[in-house]
Amino acid sequence: MVAPIFVGREKSVKALEQAYSDKSSIILSIQKEPEVEDPGVNDIVRVGTMATVVQLYKLPDGSIKALVEGISRVLIRDFVSITPHFQVSYSPLRTGWKEGSEERVGALARGVYREFIRYVETNPAVPDEISHVVGAVTEPDELADAAAAHIMLPFEKKQELLEMGDVEKRLSAVLELLVEENAVLDMEQDLNQKVQNRIESTQRQIFLHEKLKVIREELDHAPEAEDEPIQEYLRQLEEKRMNLAAREAIRKEINKLKSVSPMSPEVSVIRNYLDNVFALPWGDLAEKSDYEIPAVSRHLDKTHYSLKKVKERILEFLAVGKLLGQDQPNTTLCFVGPPGVGKSSVARAIADALERPFVRISLGGVRDEAEIRGHRRTYVGAMPGRIIAAIGKAKVDNAVVLLDEIDKMDSDFRGNPAAALMEVLDPLQNGEFRDNYLELEYDLSKILFLTTANHEDGIPPTLYDRLEAISLSGYTFEEKEQIVKRHLLPKIATESGMKKSSVVFSAAALKAVIRFYTRESGVRDLERAIRKIYRKIARGYLEDGIRLPVRVTGTSLEKYLGPAPFPEMRLERRPLRGASLGLAYTADGGEVLTIETIVSSGKGELVLTGQLGDVMQESASTAWGYLLSKVDADPRFKTLFRKTAPAFDAAGKWEMNGKDLRLHVPEGGIPKDGPSAGIALAASMLSAISGHAIRPAVACTGEITLRGKVLRIGGLREKCLAAARAGVKTVVLPKANEPEVKELPPNVRKGLEFVFVDDFAQALDPLFV
Fold first, then answer.
1. CB neighbours of 49 closer than 8 A, spacing ≥ 6?
2. Catalytic residue among 343, 659, 672, 719
3. Angle at CA 472, nearest 5°, toward 471 and 476?
4. Which of 207, 275, 344, 690 has most Cβ atoms within 10 angstroms of its Cβ?
5. 23 catalytic residue (yes or no)
6. Is position 345 annotated as part of the catalytic site?
7. What is the chain's Cα-based Rg?
8. pLDDT by residue (tens digit) across 150-190?
9. Among residues 29, 619, 676, 690, which one is catalytic?
């Protein structure tokens, strides 16, 4: 091919002039490194092109423009002279293809031509005429060279093609390069088209929007033709029963939506806000807003066994609300109790009885005030608070909303959610609740708010002041038995894909599951254990083809549930020295604790073990201080001491200087705390130092002071249930708790003997043999 070249280096200029004047050939080759200013012999690539100089022009700056015509590939064998210009000896570089590969070479040539035509059509930098020039080439090797000359490639790639003598390999390499280039060009063209379409679409929308504004101005402010979404917003604005201030604020937002550009990011913010506002019921009530107290009572009895006091308080609460004509009669109910006793299910049963939507809001772990009040719209991703979101989900303004686990809330630098809840739950304030996202007043007074907690102590005092706590304590053994028969077995059978009659539990089996496989106040673990039995039976039915119905007996329980984790607690039947029974109230209900004390050689210290908390350690120290003040001064205590008492020396005198009093509460891996074990600690210590044994099957609970006074304790029901479950016969209680005993289940009152004391000295007779 003929090509122009521009030459400025002195040696190259002289070589061109010599070749042009002598009508001789010239060899063109490239440098290995383009940065080298004065290349030597080793800087020149040995494969080049032999050419003739067709024309030569001298330029004003001294350089030369030459028109050269390529002839053939050559290999530089040696440099004959380097001054005044390079002179070399050479040999032609052989080209061709192997014999018998004519068809493959022809196919490759056609492929190269086809891809080159695509390349010219796709690449705007290559003139269309080039396709005609290349199309006129008939020889395969010349076609490969012609196509490669017009592909935009780095000089290293073009040099590789120049050095290929094998035409088949050269055609294959050119074809591969053309395919890669066409793929890149197609991708670029696709991206350019997408960008162009997007730009055209944006410009079109802007143009049409501006044109619409001009048309409206020309029509002298005629009523505007709203688009469909804005018409829908205006229709909803007319339908919703908003207050006047809210209506005006929403109308402003709709007008703002009209005026902003469709491409503005503010459009999505306004639309999201309007969607949230119109998702609220704004005065819409449930179809059946009225309710009958007897019907509610029947539904609660149907869905929940026992809980008599709880049901009475709920019905009283609803009765007052019915008479007042409002759903939240100046207070909010809070169901307090350990896990699994039915707090959430009672709330759901109330909603079902009232035939209203039920929404549960879990507040466990919430520590951001915005979770309650919502985020301000200035923040990216702002949304309404959980209260407004729950109302939008319920679709009515008189739904039943359960605020679950309010004792698990926390606070940090983002605010105090408990403080935000005070406005929500206060009937005098929640009629004008203001969510930060809505920035509108919303009436929450028709919503029936219910709350749950595991412990009253975890509820902030200011919030607790707005609640009326209803205690759901643990179930008795008989109550659990009835709950299993009436509710759990039918429910689990249905959820396991079986009929109620497919599995038959014997009375002994149910009693064993309750007594030996669970230890809780509620029935959650009990339900898990029964589900496990049903799962094993379902698998056996499908795998082994066991016949239904299956009878589960007390002896077959181990096959389904494994060894019993809670074997029956066996109380000592003989009096023991230094061992007393205390009663504890835990998150899982009541427990019977054994407190052991011995006197050993030591330094005269009180040593406490069993992972006791600070309050329990202080209670033990108080009990020990009280006993030290009484053993010599009070005759009632002196009579308990024998001459061989561990606290006496050989002469029968008090001597504890070289002895330690070691007190331990078993199950040392479980933390224990609280002041109510005071008299049990004192009894165990007194028995250890006096050598006088404590009666078996006698438990006691009560806080003790340094003067020996026995103070009121909490969790009485749970503690007495645990005592009855463990086989305790007598319970020593503080006198201040005597009225609460009347509220215990009749079978518990019948099975236990209660002794009430307000001074530890009064407990000596029932405790000691």
1. 27, 28, 29, 70, 71, 72, 73, 74, 162
2. 719
3. 130
4. 690
5. no
6. no
7. 48
8. 888 888 888 888 888 888 888 888 888 888 888 888 888 88
9. 676
